[in-house]
Design a protein that fits this description.
Number of domains of chain A: 3
Helix content of chain A: 25-40%
Number of strands of chain B: 12
Bound molecules: flavin-adenine dinucleotide
Radius of gyration of chain A: 27 Å
CATH architecture of the largest domain in chain B: 2-Layer Sandwich
Number of strands of chain A: 28
Largest sheet of chain A: 7 strands, mixed
Largest sheet of chain B: 5 strands, antiparallel
Strand order of the largest sheet of chain B: 4-5-8-6-7
CATH topology of the largest domain in chain A: Aldehyde Oxidoreductase, domain 4
CATH class of the largest domain in chain A: Alpha Beta
Strand content of chain B: 15-25%
Oligomer: heterodimer
Helix content of chain B: 25-40%
Distance between the termini of chain B: 48 Å
Chain lengths: ~800, ~260
């Protein structure tokens, strides 16, 4: 019998009531008394030296209150990268200052070099145009392509950084020689060059920020579209503006999607705070969609050569990759960890591979910063690997399913230490593969392909057996790897006198459904109604601390902190119950919401204990404080390693090159599942983004660094009619061995596992149709690209 | 958006008068004009709204059997009300944009704008329609003068479009993946006097008639009649979404499909 409440129930998402009835409270919905409006003045060239900025005309325009330029922030700090990466030669990465407003040079189209604050939005916009008109920028040649950027020592995005190279990273450098030798000795080597296409994150809600300053108290408040308000607070206080940490509150209210792009601190947040201080009035800024395209941190953008050395019967002997990763014009907060430790560490995939080596060069260009986007590094690794293995199977005339089976780790091999530094704790990759093959009716494929052929279509099937590492990670370990923060999380469980509960979580929900799922966990553990539990997130003044939500970490890390806090609540409840029931603490058991004396019918409900904690008339006051509120910080012991098998079936119209996804099947192992419906939703959304990347999404700059795909007229998003009805299963469960709930992350899996399944399916269809000359097509597989590949 | 005056015309005469003031501009459904104004790429001092003029709204059939559509009639209305009289035209209207666009956007606005990827220009040219303005009647063959360029004079408004109804017709639209305008759209209409084939989306000069296909189909209205023909790539648009050769190829594919669907 499926449960109807608590862990494992398909509880309906309570937050959807407000989201779907227009009662969400997003940053831009919040009107502040006395508010004024900021508009950013942005570069319309990709690379240029700022010769002069004359603001006098703008200053005199109606309603204008203040104008800021880069000079106003020259003396404050910069927005740092969160990880310090070292190059192969041991040198630290090159880390240019990322100022609040560009100063001296502009480095990408959309780079803000000034800001205007005025009484109304229209006035600010008019004045911003006047500032732009009063600005002289000497245009410099744009650095756009990565290969050109590293080859060109004279033209630099940052004058102090030669070759536009941020770092040249080897992982693991000690593996290098052994990999080279193994590759040389391998009977077969498959080589594949591929592009992991740059993506614009396209959260439905654009970025927005409101800064407030109270001259009476010296307190600042930032309301902003953030996935992690505490991190933003830390960056603003400790690095950028130097505001004392206790004088700034950061609130991330309802946030309409982030997909990574709202993890980071952006200059506009510092600008509205500085402007609020100067003017003593709330200052607000909301991005237009065009600004989102130009300035939200983009995702992916790798150019990779992968080599797979194998025996003639498909056993993988070595893997070597060489990648150029675009970091854009500045280092966004996670831009250095994403292509390195979130990518290189995954290059062994779910396979038993003796030798793996990853080389990655991060390159500055005159384009928008690139950072983590749903999946963050793991999609890039998975795509390279799953495409290359498919190509290897084809070259060796082997069945791609059989090749994977041959190389997949088996359940008895865990815990397994990969050659790229991770320790996979548990897994059963055969189970998810079998499940996916069965659900997708692979046995019936030939019949379906024959039917397609009869209709003039080409049908193909593609597989991806993926693994990812999420719920990052032990703080001492990430510290050794270069992280400048810890990656624990925190939760406070506050039980009220009447037994209802608020949980303050460091994790932030911006569409994931935490308010529902976390409440299910609490209700289950305490044996109370879900409705009696409220999840509070997104306000640094209410929450002890937290690192926010990204990297599929919320439940695995913050949920574990919450679980620990609940343990403390129960432990204290037992003490209270022992006193009230006149029994020894060790004799008290807690089950189904009731504290009872073992072996008797003496019991107190959770509500009675809560009441007693706040009305302590019959209470062990000599040994126990009143009240029932506990906080726990949880630092994970390891990553969690969700894994699964994705099968995609496509049909190609050979006359037009159009690819139709006929079916998409996912068999995932996410460990224990708290709410199957929410997990399905996460997979659906992730796969939609993965199919979007594989088939339609494309970010293109021209040679002058102008963004060609700067609106929905040219940037294609996947739509309902591009997508099939997914078949999703998560019945194959190997619970995570090191967190209390046994959970693994599910938020990014779909976007990680799906792109290679789609591309493999298209290549398969072309081969079955006789076009065996087509070994690869770069994403997105638009009709034009597929058709062009077919003409060769 | 910059500030502007807003005039709601009640008659065609009102509108023409209001449009005679400097920098005044006609507003149909605003689906093209308003986004342009929001981006501050257009700055009319006065917008003259046409969709408040009853004589410019609606679908009817005149005594010559032509389908007459008021210049301020929305795509949604055409999709609904022309279906019985001219199904291919109604079907075309029903696939423009999304419901919000179809409920606001108008045939007059679409033809006045003459976007090289828009659908209606193919229908108008493919049907040999007459574009009626406040001043004159313009044959479709004389109306489309290249990308975003038409025979309309300053301040001239499209009040009605008259479509002779063919024996058979069909529009095939192959969408550009992002905008879902036509990457290539082909309108084929078979009249007693011959076949017309109009192509949108493909050429840098906007909508055009494919004369060789018209001749071949007038002789034999079958997809196979096109087998030996090819559209040269020279004048085709090449952009992110498709090369010139790809577009040229699609013109033939879509024409064949339109013939097959119409026949
Ligand atoms: C999301 C989206 C998707 C779309 N998809 C498609 C598509 O698939 N296919 C397609 O064909 N179109 C598409 N369009 C365009 C749509 O059809 C517009 O409605 C059309 O281009 C303009 O019509 P409008 O009535 O909105 O004109 P407006 O935007 O009001 O005006 C456009 C221009 O025409 C002038 N004008 C308006 N009415 C008249 C008139 N009666 N006489 C003279 N001049 C006039 C205006 O002054 C202006 O210069 C799409 C638009 C959007 C926003």
């Amino acid at each position: 019998m499926p449960k109807d409440t608590g862990i494992g129930a398909r509880s309906k998402r309570r937050e959807d009531i407000r989201f779907l009835t227009g009662r969400g409270a997003y940053t831009d919905n919040l009107a502040m008394q006395g508010q004024v409006h900021a508009v950013m003045v942005r570069a319309n060239v990709a690379h240029g030296r700022i010769v002069s900025i004359d603001t006098s005309a703008a200053q005199a325009m109606p309603g204008v209150l203040a104008i800021f330029t880069g000079a106003d922030f020259a003396d404050v700090g910069g927005n740092p990268a969160g990880w310090l990466i070292h190059s192969r030669d041991g040198s630290p990465m090159r880390e240019p200052k990322r100022p609040v407003l560009a100063h001296g040079k502009v480095r990408h189209v959309g780079d803000a070099y000034a800001a205007v604050v005025a009484e109304t939005y229209e006035q600010a916009r008019d004045a911003a145009e006047a500032v732009a008109a009063g600005t002289e920028i000497e245009e410099l040649p744009a650095i756009v392509g990565m290969a050109g950027a590293v080859a060109n020592a004279d033209n630099r995005v940052h004058d102090e950084i030669p070759d536009n190279l941020c770092f040249d990273w080897g992982w693991i450098e000690d593996n290098r020689d052994a990999v080279d030798a193994a590759m040389k000795a391998a009977p077969h080597v498959t080589t594949l060059e591929l592009v992991n296409n740059r993506l614009v994150p396209n959260a439905m809600e654009p970025r927005a920020s409101i800064g407030e300053f109270n001259p009476g108290t010296g307190d600042y408040k930032l309301t902003t579209t953030s996935q992690n308000p505490h991190l933003t607070k830390l960056l603003v206080c400790a690095f950028v503006l130097g505001i004392p940490e206790h004088k700034l509150t950061v609130v991330a209210p309802d946030v309409g999607g982030g997909f990574g792009s709202k993890i980071y601190h952006y200059g506009e947040e510092a600008l509205v705070l500085a402007a609020a201080k100067k003017l003593g009035r709330p200052v607000r800024w909301t991005a237009e969609r065009s600004e989102s395209f130009l300035t939200d941190a983009h995702g992916r953008d790798h150019v990779t050569t992968i080599e797979v050395g194998a025996t003639l019967d498909g056993e993988i002997l070595a893997i070597r990759t060489n990648t150029l990763a675009n970091v854009g014009a500045y280092l966004s907060n996670f831009s250095t960890v994403t292509p390195t430790f979130l990518h290189g560490t995954l290059m062994a995939g779910p396979y038993k591979v003796p030798h793996v080596y990853v080389n990655l060069k991060a390159v500055f260009t005159n384009t928008a910063p690139v950072d983590a986007y749903r999946g963050a590094g793991r999609p890039e690794a998975t795509y390279s690997l799953e495409r290359a293995i498919d190509k290897m199977a084809r070259e060796l005339k082997l069945d791609p399913v059989a090749v994977r089976r041959k190389n997949l780790l088996t359940p008895d091999q865990f815990p397994y230490t990969t050659p790229v530094g991770l320790v996979y704790d548990v897994g059963n990759y055969q189970a998810t593969l079998d499940k996916a093959l069965d659900m997708a009716d692979l046995a019936g494929f030939e019949a379906r392909a024959a039917k397609s052929r009869a209709e003039g279509k080409l049908r193909g099937v593609g597989l991806s057996t993926w693994i990812e590492a999420c719920g990052i990670a032990p703080s001492h370990l990430v510290g050794q790897l270069g992280s400048r923060v810890g990656l624990y999380d925190a939760a406070t469980v506050r039980v009220g006198a009447t037994g209802t509960i608020q949980v303050m979580t460091g994790a932030h929900s911006h569409g994931q459904g935490h308010e529902t799922v976390f409440a299910q966990v609490v209700a289950d553990k305490l044996g109370i109604a879900e409705a009696a539990v409220e999840i509070v997130h997104g306000d640094t003044s209410k929450i002890p601390f937290g690192m926010g939500s990204y990297g599929s970490r919320s439940l695995a890390v913050c949920g574990s902190a919450m679980d620990r806090a609940l343990d403390k609540i129960i432990a204290k409840g037992k003490k209270i119950a022992a006193h009230m029931l006149e029994a020894a603490e060790g004799d008290i058991t807690f089950e189904n919401g009731s504290f009872s004396v073992a072996g008797t019918d003496k019991a107190k409900s959770f509500g009675e204990i809560a009441f007693s904690a706040y009305v302590p008339h019959n209470y062990p006051l000599e040994t126990l404080e009143p009240g029932l509120e506990e906080t726990a910080f949880y630092d994970p012991n390891n990553w969690t390693y969700p894994a699964g098998a994705y099968l995609c079936e496509v049909e190609i119209d050979p006359d037009t090159g159009k690819v139709t996804i006929c079916s998409f099947t996912c068999a995932d192992d996410f460990g224990n599942v708290m709410n199957p419906m929410v997990v399905e939703g996460q997979v659906h959304g992730g796969v939609a983004q993965g199919i979007g990347q594989a088939l339609v999404e494309h970010t293109a700059y021209d040679e002058n660094g102008q963004l060609l795909t700067a609106s929905y007229m040219d940037y294609a998003m996947p739509r309902a009619d591009d997508l099939p009805f997914y078949q999703v299963d998560h019945s194959c469960v190997t619970p995570c061995s090191h967190n209390p709930l046994g959970v693994k992350g599910c938020g990014e899996a779909g976007a990680i596992g799906s792109p290679p399944a789609v591309v493999n399916a298209v290549i398969d269809a072309l081969h079955r149709g006789g076009m065996t000359q087509v070994s690869h097509i770069d994403m997105p597989l638009t009709p034009a690209r597929v058709w062009a590949a077919m003409q060769v | 958006m910059y500030n502007f005056e807003f005039a709601k015309a009640k008659t065609i005469a009102d509108a023409v008068k209001a449009l005679s003031s400097e920098d005044a501009q006609a507003l149909g459904g605003g689906q093209t004009l308003l986004p342009t104004m929001k981006q501050r790429l257009a700055a009319p001092t006065t917008l003259v709204s046409l969709n408040t003029i009853p004589e410019m709204i609606g679908v009817c059939v005149n005594d010559r059997g032509e389908v007459c559509i008021g210049g301020a009639t929305t795509h949604a209305t055409v999709a609904r009300e022309a279906a019985a009289h001219y199904p291919a035209l109604a079907a075309l209207a029903s696939h423009i944009g999304d419901p919000a666009v179809r409920n606001r956007g108008t045939i007059g606005g679409s033809l006045a704008n003459n976007d090289p990827s828009a659908c209606y220009p193919a229908a108008a040219l493919g049907s040999g329609a007459v574009i009626k303005t406040n001043a004159r009647d313009i044959a479709a063959d004389d109306y489309f003068l290249g990308m975003f360029t038409t025979a309309l004079d300053e301040g001239e408004i499209i009040t009605e479009v008259r479509f002779p109804v063919p024996q058979k017709a069909n529009y095939q639209k192959f969408v550009q993946p992002a905008s879902r305008f036509a990457l290539v759209g082909v309108y084929v209409a078979k009249y007693a006097g011959g076949v017309r084939v109009a192509v949108t989306g493909a050429a840098s000069d906007g909508v055009f008639r494919w004369a060789e296909a018209e001749a071949a189909l007038s002789a034999d209205f079958a997809a196979t009649a096109l087998d030996a023909l090819a559209v040269p790539g020279n004048d085709m648009i090449a952009d992110l979404h498709g090369s010139a050769d790809y577009r040229a190829h699609l013109v033939k594919v879509m024409t064949k499909r339109a013939v097959a669907a119409a026949a």
